[in-house]
User: Fold these one by one.
Assistant:
Number 1:
Amino acid sequence: MGKGMECSENSQTNMKVIHGEAGYVLEDVPHLTDFLPDLPTFQNPLQFNPAYSVVKQYFVNVDDSVAQKIVVHKDSPRGVHFRRTGPRQKIYFDSDEVHACIVTCGGLCPGLNTVIREIVCGLYHMYGVNKILGIDGGYRGFYAKNTVPLTPKIVDDIHKRGGTILGTSRGGHDTSKIVDSIQDRGINQVYIIGGDGTQKGAAVIFEEIRRRGLKVAVAGIPKTIDNDIPVIDKSFGFDTAVEEAQRAINAAHVEAGSFENGLGVVKLMGRYSGFIAMYATLASRDVDCCLIPESPFYLEGKGGLFEYIEKRLKENGHMVIVIAEGAGLDLLSESFQNTDLKDASGNKLLPDVGLWLSQRIKDYFSGQQKMVINLKHIDPTYMIRAIPGNASDNVYSTLLSHSAVHGAMAGYTGFVVGPVNGRHAMIPFNRITEKQNKVVITDRMWARVLASTNQPSFLNPKDFIEKEEPQTQTQLEDGGKY
Ligand SMILES: Nc1ncnc2c1ncn2[C@@H]1O[C@H](COP(=O)(O)OP(=O)(O)OP(=O)(O)O)[C@@H](O)[C@H]1O
Ligand SMILES: O=P(O)(O)OC[C@H]1O[C@](O)(CO)[C@@H](O)[C@@H]1O
Ligand SMILES: [Mg+2]
């Protein structure tokens, strides 16, 4: 810890927070020495690695941190920081001692296999680790299935395939059985790849490991096609998903443009966050209306969706609507009985909004409007999720994997890796799991979507203006990322 720093631990969240000068705050991650103070250290073998020994500054300074906010005013406090990732001079595991395991949980996401590959190759090539196990089929694989040995040869070309070679699942998180399995197998590094639910599971695994006083590092790699993980810039697979969504939007546009009053409805993923729909819309420019969970809308009456569709068809002869799977749930609940069905992880099962919207539009225009429309509904959701990562996601996945490996080798634990303002950092679990990342509809990014599609905002601007204080300066809100 640097000079003039004060460290405190919040007993409720177990968070290590370090305060420095001028309002500097480091939301630190746990280290194995917090509960095992006498661990021996080792020289990092990377200094002898031909790839790294030519790099001038290959070890990061122990005090390096990454700022959460980079837009500041001259009198702003320095604000919250996270510990920077990267190789450390001193490590807490001897290469021969490491017995690592990797597990993938939750839904599929492009780039999962790249992350697995790069953890295996990173451990092997950078740190000389050769005992690495794959856990089969998500959390329950720890106690209900056999493990798969992983070597650079086995994972050599898996990044070219979609899905996860380890398999995945929802539900089945039994903390004590999982930690028993880790302990019984002599595993001392656990790499957990998954979304918000998975990282909640990883946090309780870490707590149990700490309670038992085991020398086991737990590292989370955030995975979510929905981009709903907070703090980090974006999640891997998201770019690929946005790119792949273009094919569906193009098809919808071609279909719509070829028929009189052609209407293409494309459903994209996004349970609670409409990032894929928002970015796919902005990227495409062929979309006339983007509907996301964060922005309420209505169908009938003045300023409603039906009125807009009619206007657009009259003006342009065709239109494309992109709808995220969690959009308009309040409207759907009027048509569907609230069954409250959940998946094995406890996530609410949503009715099919694409089908519902398409039917409502057809009913409206075949009813009182007497306007013949040609509607094509495209649902590419699983096709988008099941492909391999694109080039930029593959590079990104490599950085994430290496960050996790460097962090675990350096004895950090109970952390999630990810880029914060473009620099990779280790973030405590609770910062990742306490809330979901959502599109902020009062941000400029959503305004860009509205400006690009010309769709109605479905909101009364007075609702916003009257509630807000007059602003003299740019507000430095959390949401103002884009
Ligand atoms: N609160 C929790 N505590 C412990 N384990 C959890 C918790 N929430 C979810 N899990 C476990 O994490 C795993 C994955 O959770 P979930 O199915 O919600 O997917 P996810 O990780 O959120 O990914 P995504 O939503 O992107 O598909 C499951 O095995 C589930 O049992
Ligand atoms: O059908 P499954 O496997 O539960 O996955 C669907 C969900 O997974 C996600 O892609 C998140 O991984 C959500 O967008 C979607 O609601
Ligand atoms: Mg989730």
Number 2:
Amino acid sequence: MMELIRLKECHSLTLKYSEEVGKGVYANKEFKEGELILKDEMLVAAQHSSNKVDCLVCSKCFKLYWFCRATDWEETIFAKLCCGGCEEEHYCSKLCAESDWESVHSLLCTGQSSGSSQAAMLRFLEHANGTNDIFILAAKVISFTILKYRKLKQLHFEGCKLLDRLGETDESRFSMLLEAWKPISMGFKKRWWDCIALPDDVDPCNEGSFRMQIKDLAFTSLQLLKDAIFDNECAYLFSLEVYGHIIGMFELNNLDLVVASPVEDYFIYIDELPSPEKEEAERLTRSFLDALGDEYSICCQGTAFFPLQSCMNHSCAPSAKAFKRDEDRDGQAVIIACRPISVGEEITISYIDEDLPYEERQAQLADYGFKCRCSKCLEEQP
Ligand SMILES: C[S@@+](CC[C@H](N)C(=O)[O-])C[C@H]1O[C@@H](n2cnc3c(N)ncnc32)[C@H](O)[C@@H]1O
């Protein structure tokens, strides 16, 4: 964990473990109110399939498409293609396309040059889109780990060519797989079917069969994924236990991906202009807004895995807020201090609307599997 913090050069933060709440993030320096604490880059992310129709974003950095400036015309045309030739993913630049291909997409692509069985991958995606698109995120985690493992293995054996691969043992392969898995292990929690909240329309006496149905759904999805990308050397990743934990990690981590539409800012800006500049600006931009249609201000919505943010615990009187500033136009998580924070203090965020009454807060937090005992709850509990 500390390695990840070092890699991200977050010298101002530290991770600690407590019996009561597990991992937590603590301040190594003082933060002023409004100061940036952390920009956490997502490891894997996916836009909700229903949101894809209304909001075109880069599949790697999640910047809104027409907001990205390409350097020249050729780049603009080239940038939008996936390296494998599928039409599912779109990119704002060649750099994003190549980086996504190398880190995740090459195994999940349904194009001609994909590294998986196209028909099997299509079956997996169809099932995920028809049931729960969290499976696509889980597939991305598995693909990320396999590709990283292969890269580590290649690097390792390039380094000891003369050994004629004698160094390749089950043990060395396993330790490379563990190394590839390390960033994901940060968010590992409970199995999906154990931690998913019971929906309101399910009678508590049917809880057992509900959880069984969820497990069966995960099993079906995993079989379809195995048909598409199974790798014998990474067989551990394809166990139902690991798959259930990966999905559970998204269920329990408060990791929404939101990238606002820049058009919203335009309206705020225009509203604040004095007359007659306001009317003039509206006249000049009306044709552009008409061309964009009614859904111009829909933001990108999805789910992402942010390794460090996933270690931040909840408080109804939080010390920090996940809050995008004007300049934060991509899918990174931005954490800002919402009051002064002293050295050694825990950085907490609120997973819910902390202004709700006590009972409602506790009910919503039950979905995350815990009863909140923060200072505000202790004060307000009946
Ligand atoms: C996003 S994770 C936070 C990191 C977590 N402590 C860990 O070890 O990975 C959310 C989980 O942390 C625990 N948690 C977070 N805030 C808590 C709190 N105020 N009280 C008790 N448990 C909490 C719950 O188990 C919750 O499902």
